[in-house]
Amino acid sequence: MTTTTRPYVGTALDRVEGMEKVTGRARYAYEYSPDELAYAVPVQASIARGEVRSIDVQAALTIPGVIAIIWHRNAPRLAPADNAELSVLQSARVAYRGQYIAVAVAETLEAAGEAARSLSVDYADEPHDTELRADHPGLYRPEKVNAGYPTDSEHGDPDAAMEAAPIRVDATYSTPAEHNNPMEPHATVARWDADGLTLYDSTQGASAVRATLAALFTMPPANVRVIASHVGGGFGSKGLPLAPVVLAALAAKHVTRPVKLAVPRQQMFAVTGYRTPTIQRVRLGADADGRLTAIVHEAIEQCSTIREFVEQTTTPTRIMYAAPNRRTTHRVVKLDVPTPSWMRAPGEAPGMFALESAMDELAIACGIDPVELRVRNEPDADPESGEPFSSRNLVACLREGARRFGWADRDPTPGARLVGRTLIGTGVAASTYPAYRSPSQASARLEPDGRYTVRIAATDIGTGARTVLTQIAADALRTSPDRVTVEIGDSALPPATLAGGSMGTASWGTAVVRACEALREQVSRSGDLPSAGLEAAADTKEEVGAQERFSRHAFGAQFAEVGVDVDTGEARVLRLLGVFAAGRIVNPKTARSQFIGGMTMGLSTALFEESLMDREFGDYLNRDLAQYHVAACADVRDIEAVWVEEDDPHLNPMGTKGIGEIGIVGTAAAIANAVHHATGIRIRDLPIRLDKLLR
Hints:
The protein is of the alpha+beta class and 695 residues long. The protein is built from 16 helices and 26 strands. Residues 130-158 are annotated as: Disordered.
């Protein structure tokens, strides 16, 4: 076995698949074209609630090239699903506007599109309710929230402590519905043959798609293969199987031919998830020195009538700051809307906007610097569980960020800095995200030529997973990355958790390290390399289940400088600095990309992103990137991401915490706090549009 003393984890290795991407050889789901391929175009409901009485398909079937029109009367039957969103074309019920009610399949995409448009649908329309409001009579307390967290938590007597506190903040913050818009829309190519079902799918988790589709079509998982070689982003929307992949498989089964289905950008606003809008009331009580005596954080959200999904909005408040009296709650109402789902840093992103905005308001009420206020309320252990933190370097991030940003020179007076016709302000907010790890499996093989092949059904959604796993494997095998080939993106490989929750590298890397360690042990025992090579495998289920009891979180500090035009109210982010403590950084090059990507998305959250619901229409009005605005290059003037060194032995063999999501957390609050510092206007409902600043 070739050995090397150089550690590759921690080096800025170029992406191992870089040339494939820049030369166009990397194949995404829609680029696979099996023989006899047909095209599918879904048909969406044009009512928000009711039933499909009938669909007149005669005109569509006369269009040249049309193969079939599939709806609930003739669709293949699926097994019952816990997630009713996956029961595609199984009943006449319409739960929200945009729900799939039919699909046209044709020889060409153009013919399928024409057929879909020609369908005449007769509905039994019913009154609908799509408005989230704080006094909605349908609000209820769910049993759990996303990721299995308890719905509510309470310690001490927060009401009495709040009443007794000499300094109090009581404010309501709101965030709008936001839609995931990855560069690559959702797409699937489905093919049935004697061996079962093969899917080329744009997904964050091939193993999860395989398990779900196998159950829906009542076949062994071994008869389903999901290939996701390259994925053009997901931001959570591709984390779990959704209606489009089911519809593609169902259509292919019906016409007994391979079928290609791509979700147009406009349809993604109904069928691929979104971030729930929130209404959050935050109450903070503190003594004269700014030390918190009470925290109350209450969130109101929405879900659909067919599936309960409750974002864990107030859970970051449970671990952020020391206070003897605390309460956090979640309440939800079922509306006639699509089901919300994961969107980058679910829970933490909207929840920390409210908490960190309230902390800024408290700092002003106390007359204490916002950085110092957070330092004064640093807990010794997890305030919720009492468990020790595996590591917590929030204070280090705040201090380092303040130094780099030039925070000490800040005049705290709102509206004091005017440059020309632009008011300049600065703001700070903290960031956090849990350090998750899930069981996964991997294999490592020493090939007859002396090279190594590592296999795991991980997914690279543009984050550089292939590259960092190559580095991790090279170090575990004590060889160099150019001697290691990592195979991912295929459910036929050893099963792995999805790419999401900032747990991919931690979960997959653990399995890869253990498989490589097992291979090295085999090689040391075998002596000469057999002609067929050697292979070892690992399953981390027991290791993950038996890990020590620690509170595991990444932390960070976001600093923003904002300019607001005094005549137009237009806000521009002039500088963004993020300082993070996220364990060991495997690859500084890909890490920086992840951090600044999250921060850019946080900037977008603060200033632009907003899905607008029309209550009469029963649907979101802005359904494309011309009307749903996201941050572009001109909006990102100066953005910097750095990290502090952190050695945490309680996480995983690599010492990593995950970095995909923490970059977005806190950014919107830092920008809103900077806007207040610039103008004296406190924006509590996102986004920060110019009309809100033209007072």
